Please model this.
Amino acid sequence: MKKTARKGPKRVGPSAGPLLPLLHAIVRRDLRDFVVDAGMTALADVLEQERAAVCGPRYQHRADRRAFRTGHAMGELVLGGRRVQVERPRARTVEGDELTLPSWHAFASEDPLQERALAQALVGVSTRRYASSLEDVPAGVRTRGTSRSAVSRRFVAATEQQMGTWLGRDLADVDLVVLMIDGVHINEHVVLAALGIDADGKKHVLGIREGATENSTACTALLGDLRERGMRTDRTVLAVLDGSKALAKSVREVFGRHALIQRCQAHKSRNVLDQLPEDLRPSVREALRQAYGCADAARAKRLLGNLARRLRDDHPSAASSLDEGLDETLTVMRLRLPSKLERVLSTTNAVENLIGSVRNLGRRVKRWRDGRMIVRWTVTAVVDAATRFRRIKGAREGLLALVLALRAHDGANAAAEPQGK
Model:
């Protein structure tokens, strides 16, 4: 039986057609330059075809002519984070009005330069180094829009627009169960940030407020703004705060009896340890860890009370710091939530991570001009951080228990209301 050879794929030889010269051209030149040049050529062809569609073929007289060719003019389009000059074919109507070709209008109306300036700033590119961070354009292409002042203007415009949109968002659709508030010092200002957690465990940056200090006036103004934008204050939320008495006062003023306040256990521990000598800190730190790590609120309170009595004679300031608001450091423990969710809601770590993003971005600023600039940069940082948010740990196992506990508190408040009120 005669065997037949298996046919393999055909090899492309030197006479493979017009594709090889094109491939050789790509190899000899930079691929990106080749693509840009090809794109420019294609754009010029499309524009010329559109002009021919309204003006008719060259050198032909037409009785129904609607427009006439009027040469070329230099225009600008956006390419690779900069503006590049492109020759634009022109046409005028028989009445003398300038015509804008459809493709030119489409490309020119898309101006991503503001978004590019914002994105470069978020990854740490300064306005002075913006031009060097961009890819080169082919030789002979005239560009502009990469100077420090031009990039700065675009960044300001982008952040102003973002700030106006973001600070006016409607919050009515956020099913808020947890509210966390913390502040960051920037220059001589304090910016308060409010972080919300909904019934699904998703985090939402609710708003920010700039003030001179972390006082109750600024916090009350922040909460009032959130309420005007749709945040409900007529049902119980868990408010997780640092050790600031001003923040707790403001939350009580706005939410009234609908506020369950949890003081951050990490802040409380730091405040106590900072007022102790170095040799005593390890033992006190371990005592605090054991108290806050037990699952029984009554036992934790007893352990903390014993620690305060032990410190009262030799270190009264540390003892007073521990006594102040001690019950409110155990609020979440009393709700008997799953341990993983309890750890998350016993501290303000979630909002402090957000504050860390603000600090990281703010380090790149050499000079803060005013409070509005601080707010713009803060909004930029928190909006960027929000794109990386994840559900809180323990949400699947424990949030239903939290919601039930909050609604039970609402029922207790309703039962305590005077009859006929």
Observations:
- The longest strand covers residues 67-79.
- The chain has a mean pLDDT of 85.
